[in-house]
Each structure stands twice: as structure tokens, then as C-alpha cells.
Amino acid sequence: MSKEVRVGLIGYRFMGRAHANAYRQVNAFFDPPLRPRLKLVCGRNETAVREFASRFGWEEQTTNWKEVISRPDIDLVDISASNDVHAEIAIEAAKTGKAIFCEKPLARDLKEALTMFRVVQEAEVTHMVCFNYRFFPAIRLAKRLIKEGAIGRIRQFRAIYLQDWLVDPTFPLHWRMRREKAGSGALGDTAVHIVDLARFLVGEIAEVTGLLETFIKERPLPDRPGLANVTVDDAATFLVRFAGGAIGVFETTRVAPGRRNFMHLEVNGEKGTLYWNAEAMNTLWCYTEEGPPHCQGFRRI
Amino acid sequence: MSKEVRVGLIGYRFMGRAHANAYRQVNAFFDPPLRPRLKLVCGRNETAVREFASRFGWEEQTTNWKEVISRPDIDLVDISASNDVHAEIAIEAAKTGKAIFCEKPLARDLKEALTMFRVVQEAEVTHMVCFNYRFFPAIRLAKRLIKEGAIGRIRQFRAIYLQDWLVDPTFPLHWRMRREKAGSGALGDTAVHIVDLARFLVGEIAEVTGLLETFIKERPLPDRPGLANVTVDDAATFLVRFAGGAIGVFETTRVAPGRRNFMHLEVNGEKGTLYWNAEAMNTLWCYTEEGPPHCQGFRRI
Amino acid sequence: MSKEVRVGLIGYRFMGRAHANAYRQVNAFFDPPLRPRLKLVCGRNETAVREFASRFGWEEQTTNWKEVISRPDIDLVDISASNDVHAEIAIEAAKTGKAIFCEKPLARDLKEALTMFRVVQEAEVTHMVCFNYRFFPAIRLAKRLIKEGAIGRIRQFRAIYLQDWLVDPTFPLHWRMRREKAGSGALGDTAVHIVDLARFLVGEIAEVTGLLETFIKERPLPDRPGLANVTVDDAATFLVRFAGGAIGVFETTRVAPGRRNFMHLEVNGEKGTLYWNAEAMNTLWCYTEEGPPHCQGFRRI
Amino acid sequence: MSKEVRVGLIGYRFMGRAHANAYRQVNAFFDPPLRPRLKLVCGRNETAVREFASRFGWEEQTTNWKEVISRPDIDLVDISASNDVHAEIAIEAAKTGKAIFCEKPLARDLKEALTMFRVVQEAEVTHMVCFNYRFFPAIRLAKRLIKEGAIGRIRQFRAIYLQDWLVDPTFPLHWRMRREKAGSGALGDTAVHIVDLARFLVGEIAEVTGLLETFIKERPLPDRPGLANVTVDDAATFLVRFAGGAIGVFETTRVAPGRRNFMHLEVNGEKGTLYWNAEAMNTLWCYTEEGPPHCQGFRRI
Question: Rounded to two decimals, what is the model's pTM?
Fold first, then answer.
């Protein structure tokens, strides 16, 4: 018998909408052991949140996130609001014993993240950061093949995640370009995904050296004339050594013209290679040494 | 009227054979201003070098490289021998006023390379390191488009060069795996190509941080039982800042299973992106902002 | 103000489920001028149809399709049942004045289809066959570019649609492999999509010559021991002349190993080429003669 | 010990040059059992043929093809001249006992081809039509895999060969566009290659139905003002049944914008699929049913 989980969603923009859709669709197409119930959604604009609730079938809406935390009929708090409020909401929610599902990046900096982690551990609540790529079928297959030993011990990992939505210098200053709101730029927004996948597929990172760069240092203000400083990175690159002995290369940027949302991963092991590209997200490429030499090659699964 | 250049080739294995073929074919298909004449080829094994000379149409052969240097009827000395003799031959050749065409890597280390450079400069002879990728039509087109301003000022560069010929741990210890002969491993053998292309397309490198790794630390001796240490790198990764302000990521390895000879380059500018993959070596991909939004996309040239 | 359309869905398997999902999602993500209301769903198995109704949010369910036709509170009848009942249901529905949305293939043969067409025309009801590919963004973009004259007058069209779900000869005899139920095999199931796209992009077909083939002539019965004849085609190929002067080549099969659902379209005009492959369904490739010669190439939009 | 074959080459333009290069290179890189000797080359323009002979190392040249036939020191006559003289030269050469190597298309029509075939058979000379694609490594591998039974009995074959060199309507009337010289258009020029590959990989063709089309019916004269009729096809499409039971689809054209030289082949068997695209001419794609279901996919060899 599946168990109902009463969801309180905070934030209904891009990711909030994606989460709402997922909660609804999972019940239509699958029989999950934990069945989400679209109980309460929270946003600052009352009209907009009411319309959102009606479209996706939320039972209630509110403009006060503290209500989500305090309501006894909410089991899970979904934090899809901007990065600067993740910590406050998560800490409050943990104290009232709610399960916590927080959008990435978890926090604006390491200190904030560690505080959040300590609080949820002390509160002994279920908690999770939303890293969606782990759940892609091709990534799960990669994980399975690695576990089965198909490519042997891992030696090298490379991951590239390129976007171009900030390449236009007249694109106005958004909260994602201000350190006090976003914490970081491409590092927290896109690099987190490839770091998460590296941890999922290869293991923990032991050493790192890297480089951040901001190419467009000033942008127009969104609401009045004038320019203001961009206080986060446009691009981040880093080299790592994993605890297990592998080495890795990571690169992300938000200013690569024409690269709408390009992500490429490759894992080289002693005996084989796996690679995956998000533009063909259901395809995993696999090379192993099996078979006669005249038939060897990458397999598109 | 084209001028004849009398070539003395030292080394007739993999690269020597490629050079011999090129000297011969350029005269059949093109009308170069400098027309190579296959005058003298040098190798240590007399029978083999004689057979090689006959196949490719060399006029004479020798087993003594000093003969190549000292002969007055040789204009150009082509150094296609192993890395450890590049410096000695080049320095001697420069002293006799020959033009010098040296295979990459130029030398085993920076000191050796700088000495060579100083000598050829003092001797005022024509000199060049063989970087073949610069001459690929797609790379020349990339250079042309960058010069024409098609992608604007360059911001980011990434280059990956993966091979797998050393992935088998039973592959015996070759001179390319010994520091005293080769100088370095993947760094000097394959990374040099992408560094050269970066310098060709983007410009000089100002700062670098990197990481070398040797995964297979011992290999069988080629000529008797037993193992010996591999004293060069299997893989090299590095991050750079170019003098012009761009940043770059480089990676090369000789142990990526299934990657026979995979090279990928990408250049992101303010206004566009170019990328190229050696597996489709005559194809250059280009994105620029031109045209109406519903028609934008990468163009495969 | 959007108008509500009360839907009665007949059939809830593969396509019925897809339609139900679409009716529900269109209201969540868009503001369509006609807003579907999930009123009544019909299926033969009462338990299954009840469960389906609950999952997707249908207000009522029934096991009698005549109820769907006769109910005054149904505006649109969606026929997602097997091919052999399309005609009967559509004709009855037209007589009661319902709008009709019928899955492809419309009918089992030309005579049946023409009868259906005559009846709905006489009844003056809104009617449509479900050809989903027309609505793919890349196909709509192709249509737009053709209309804008980007490739000039069309000369050639080619379409390939390959599947492999029937390649296993032990796959049992399904209603889709019996002429009296399905009408035809690959011709009606998959070729219809590419014929529809040809009509959408190029125009009406004037002449045709073709070839049908059944490679696996007998298959196991699904419900008892023994084999029975396959009475429809496994593969269909045909050449056409369009009314507008272009020529075309079509091929479809259900027995191409490894080709899960491979569809490729290409249109050659006087001045350019468009092609599209369903494996990268949001990518349209476009070649036109614009630009300087050294920049010409296919553009991936 | 390899045997020398003294070659007499008639025609030194596009294909003659390719043959001359091949004769020369095969001796440099391989040890063929029959070693070509570049004895005599024939062309109508004395200056041009002399320059050609000197570039590629032919011993002698002539402007009279009858000399090539009559010389006792010629073993092989290579017919790389225009289509309208293939028959006359081949028949004469056969009568003097020369081995014959004739460019495709063999003849302008079936009657001419059958006459040639009868004469060389009666003369009992070695003879061959130049179909180069059979010798591509990927095609030879496909042949080998088919022979080894990797994909089972063949059911379907498809081949597309697209070019665009005639898409410009101002491109002048060339001998290849006149029936009396060329025999046919795309049919004899490009379709012959895919028909040859079909015979090589699948077997003999038993039945055929097809369609020829000429889109650009008039073209400028090359040497004086005015237009003249194009008397050959721009495009050819045909459906076949092979003697072994497989079916096939063929298409070729010379007016597909942007398709410089696009050739795609696919063979579907009972147990697997092979496909190949000339744009990546050293890559063969192979799907077979081997391996666990979660690893199945096309393999890029």
C-alpha cells in the first residue's frame, strides 16, 4: 500500500512548476510507494499563486511561508524559492520535524550549507537536495554498468556543462548575478549538477584546484537606468583528484554562444568508457573490450 | 618558378614515412613555391632504410646522420627521429646552416628547447616544429573566421585529446614511456598538439595550473622478462589564462578505452562559437548570432 | 475567454492514455482557446477503466461506447479504440452531432474511410484524424521555412520510418497483424505518419507505385498453442509524384533490428534542404545558399 | 615474388588522376602481388598529358589511344575516358588480349554493356569495372559480418546517394548531361555505386520498378550563348526485389542542396542491422541481439 505525503511547496516559478508537474504526473503514470498529495503552495504574489494552484490542482495556497512550516497537515516542505532563503526555511522546517526537499544549490556558501546540514541531522528529519540528473535513465544505467564492473576501476572523469543565456551583455542584472542572493554564479547553478553526477558515478572528491571568471562585469539594472556590478562568476573550471584515485576535469559557463544547455559526461575506466550527452538524454554510449577485435566499438544504448 | 629544396630526412618510421609521402605527393597534386626533392634518407638499419628509399623514391640513403648534416647538397634537415636526439641533431644542423624541420615535441624539457631555439636563432636558419593540425582545412577556416571577427573577442577555449593505445597494462615499455628518451608522456606527445592549436587560434598562454597522472606505473620490459617503471605521464590536465584574457581547459590521455584518436576543440567568443572534432576532420561547426531567431543554430561547414 | 470542450474518450490503452495526459497537461501549461474537460472515459474492462479514470482525473467512466455518443453533455468523441471500430463509432457520433477526433489509421481501407468522410461532411461536424507529428515544433518550423520560401520550390522528398517491435518471430499474433482488425500493417500504422507529413510539407500526392512485403508469414497465437497467418504487411515502400511536380520516396518497416522508432524526413528544394530526425526531435537541419561560400553548411536549429 | 603489371592509362582528368595516384601509392605502402608499373598515359592534349606524366611518374605519354592498345609492352588498359568511348576502347583492347579495367558506368546502355561483356568473355581477358566503394574498409567489414551471419538472412536494404553539384541552373551543359555521351544522368553516375554495393552485400536484383526525373530541363551551352536540353536524369529512385527474397529502396540525385556527396546504406537482417554513411567513411554501425537487454544498442565500429 502506498503512503500519502502531503506536500507544501514554497516557490512556484521555474522549478516550483516543474516540481508541481512531477508530483501530479507520478501518480498518473506510476505507483510510487510514497504518493505526493498537492496540499499547499506558497508564493509572494497572491493572484499568481492562486492561479498556479488552480492549474496544477493544489488544494490550498498561501503567501506566508511560515504557514507551510507550521501546519501540522504538511509532511514535506519543498524549497523552490531563491537561494538566499534556502537556509532559513530549511532550518525552521527541520525544527518542526518536516521532511525537507531543497532545490540546488543548497546554500550560498559552505558555512551556510554546513549549518543546514547540522540542523537537519540533529532534527533527524528526512532531507534531500534536488539533483534531477541522477534520475535520468541513461545516468542510472551508467551507474548500474559501473557497479557491475563493465568498465573496471575508474581512472578519469570529465564533465562539461555549457549554457549561453547570459551571453548578451544587455541582459539585466538578475538575482542570480548577485552574490548576496545567489551565493555564486555558474558554480552554484550549473557546476553543482556535474559535481553531483561525479559524486554519484565516481565518488567523493579529495583535492581540487580551479579558476572562476566573470567576463561581463557590469550589467543594466532591471528596474531603473544604470549599470551595476555582476558579483558572481560567468564560468568555472576545475581539476580534481577523487578519493578513489581517479582524476577529473570540470567546466561550466553561462556565456558559450549557441550552447543552450549542453552537458557532456565521460568516465574512463581500466576496461571501458561510458559517455553521455544531455542533448540525446536517453542515449548512453558504452565501450568495453568484449568481442572480437573487428567488432569493437562504442555502443549506443 | 618554384624553387627546389633538397631534403635530408633522419628517421623513417611512423612520422618519417608520413613526411616522405607528403614530400612526394605535394609535387603531384600542387605547385608549391618550394618544391621538395627527396635527396637523402637516414636510418640505423641499412636494409630497412634502403628498402624505404626505394619505395618512396629517395635518391640516396645513409646510416650516419652526421652525413646528412655535412652534405653540401642538402638544404633542409628533417628530424623525425626519437625525442632524445632532436636537440643534438638540430644544433649540429643549424651550425652548418641547414634549414631545420623538427618533429614534435621539440625537446625533452624546457631547457633543451630553449638551447635549441637560441642556437637556430643565432645561426639565422629557417626552422619549424611539425605541428600538422594547423594545416587542416577546418582549422585554417576557424582561424580565418576568428580573424574576420565572426565570433568576436575570444573568452573560452577547451581542448580534449584522448587516445587509448596504452590502456593495456601488458603493452611493453617503449621509449615513449621513459623520461630520459621521451621527456614526457601524453604531455609532450598529444597535449603539444592542442597547445599549439590554442596558440594558433587564441594566442599566447600567460598562466597555467595542472596535474599529471600515471595510472599504470610498471610495464613489462620489451626485450626480457620483468617489469620496469613508467617514468612519464599517462594523462595531463591543465587550466590556463591566455595573455588576451581568455581562459582555457586542456585534457589529454593515452588510456581512455575506445578513444582511438579523439580530439575536440571549442572556442567561445563574445558573439559566437566554433567547434571541431577530429573524427570528422573536414567539418567545422559555427554558431553566430546572425539571422532571425527562428533560424539560429550551429552550422556544419 | 476560453471555451470548455467536454471530452468523451473511447479507449484507454496506449493512445488513450497519451490523449488523457495531453488533455490534462494543456490546461496546466497553456491557455488554449478550447479547454478540454475530462468528462467521460469508456473501456471494456470496468475495473481497469475505473482505475484509469481516477489516475487521470476523468469525472465519469462507462463500459458502453454508445453512452458516450448519446450523452448530451459530451462535445467531442475521441476514438482511441482499435481500427476495426473507428468507422462504426465515428458514423454514429457524427449522427448525434458530436465533434470527432479519430486515431490513425482512420479506417481499414479506402472504402471505409470515404464512407466516414462522407458522413461527417453531411453531418457538418468538426472532425480530425490524430496525426501528432505535424505538431512537433521542428516540423512546424520546417513548414514555416518552406512557406517563407527558404528552400524554394520543392523538388524531392524522402521519408523513412523504421521500427523493430515485430522482428522477433515468436512475438504473438496481435490484432495489429490481422487484416480484418487492422486493415493493414506498417502501411496503416507507421507509413500514415510520413504520408501525412508529406502532405503537410509538400502537398497532395498524384501518382504512386509501391511494394508491400510480409517477412514473417506465421506467428504464434496469443491465447492457445499453434500458429496463424499474418495477414498484413511487415514493410511498405513506395515512390510518388506529387501534384506540384516533386517526387518522393517512402519506406516503413516494423522489422528493422535495433531501429526502435527511427523516423527521418528530408525535403530538397531549388534553393535549400531541410531534414529532421525523430531521434533528435527538437532539431531541424537547414541548408540554404545564403552567406559567403566559405561559411556554407547545414545549420542545426 | 610480386609480378609487375605494365599499365596503359587512357584519360587523365578526375578519375585518371585518382588511378595514377593509386598505382603509385600502392607500391609505397603495400606489397601487392601484382605491382603496377606506370608505363604509358594517353590524353588528347599533348602538353597537358606530358605535364601529367611528369607529375605522377609515367614513363611515356601519347595522344593516340590506339597506341595503348597495340603496344606489346602494355599488360593492362585502364579506361578512364568519357562514357561514350568505353565500349570501343574495351572491345579493341580485348581483341589484342589486354586486361581491361574500365571506369563506371561500363556503358551508355544495356545493349552496349552486353556487347562489351560478350567480347571480353570470348577474348578470355581479365576485366573489371571500377567500383571503388567495395574496397572501403567499412564496406569490407560489413561484407565480412554478413558472411559470418552476424545479422542473419537479409530482409531489407536501403541506399541513398545525394549530390548537389547540378543544383545551380546556370551550371553549363556538360557531356555528363547529354544522353549520347553519358548514356544517363544520376542513374549511371551515382546510382551505379549503390547498385554495385547492393549486389556486393545483398546479391542479385530480380525485379525493379522506378522513376527518373529531370528538374532542370535546359542549361546554358558551355561554349556559346543559348540554352540546350538536358537529355539525362537529375534524379533516379527505384524499388527492387532481390533474388534472395529481400526488398530494397534506392534513391540518387544530383540536385539536393547542401548534400555534397552524401551516401547512406543500411542492411536489415533477421537478427541485426548494419549501416554506414560515407561522411564518416571509416565507421560501420552494427546492431545485433547479443548481450543483456540493458546493454543493447548500435555499436560504432
Answer: 0.88
